[in-house]
Amino acid sequence: MTDTSFPAHISVDRDVDINGLPVLTATVTPDADSAALPLPDGPDGPIGDRGSAQAPFIKVGTIANAGARPTGLGADDRGKWWHRLDDNGMDFWTGTSWVHSPDAVGDQGSNAPATTITTTTLHDPALTVPAVKVTGSGPDLAVAVTVPAGLQGIPGPAGASGAISDATDYDDSTGPTQGSVLAYNLGAKKWRVQPPPGGFGPWSWWGTDFAADQEVATDKLIAGTFTLPALPFQWRPVVYGHLAIYCQLVSSTNAVAYARLNNSNGIMLATAAGARIDGSYNPLALNPTYGDEGTKPLSPSSTYATVPAYQSASIVVTVERVGSASSTAKIGYRQSGASLVVWAMPV
User: Which tens digits make up the pLDDT trace of 184-215?
Assistant: First the structure.
């Protein structure tokens, strides 16, 4: 058979199944002229499956006897029958006449098992088309129902502001402080508090915050101890200050002011040294100087002279006699005009 071409309109309808998957149905409608063309017979198709047996009788009801038979029946009523109560028989309509079979109706059978229906529902905001699927055989049936999502509601009121620290991508291993910044940690894929990039502080003390004036023949005087709170990051003190110090005029002996970490023998953080001028008090500036007995070079990655995170610290200001180990010269300082300024520099 040769191919035949003709103009036609094709429409495709879309539906969804129980899981929301699309089902497409195509309909081809030829134009009026093409639809009127005779089509040649095609080849015979394969023999179809045998159909299921059909019951030849349709029970309509009961009648008392032959005289109660219904009237007005025709060919369309063929196969209908009535139960005759007078002889427990069967009156059957052939389409043109009656056929009677006495004692044809047996006893009533037992009741069929009750039907049970198990229902499941599927709720999914992405599914907007309802669907029903029935499965099973006999009295046991299962019904699956897709309940479509409703229309979008109106926006609700704005929620309360949440804390950044309550977010799931927030790393609370480092606590925040004034001037801290947030930075994203690529390894942990979380936001983490970073120390203030310009340092934290300052703390400052002045005048009467220092110990009272002292002038004693000793190796070391403590002019003041100043406590700093624990911070949530490792840091190095940056210390500046002023102090008037004194050293008695004795050969090879001088006085030096120090700021030390945590105790009077701790790491040097700042120093101020001056010349002995007629045994008078000289106001000197304390400047950052790190080391022990001598200065120590540092680098940006150095952890020398630092305070661990979450530990408090103290700055101890001393006046120390240097020079001859056997000196008995007096050293001293004045409370008036004394000052100390400390910054915490993150490392």
Answer: 888 888 888 887 777 788 999 999 999 999 99
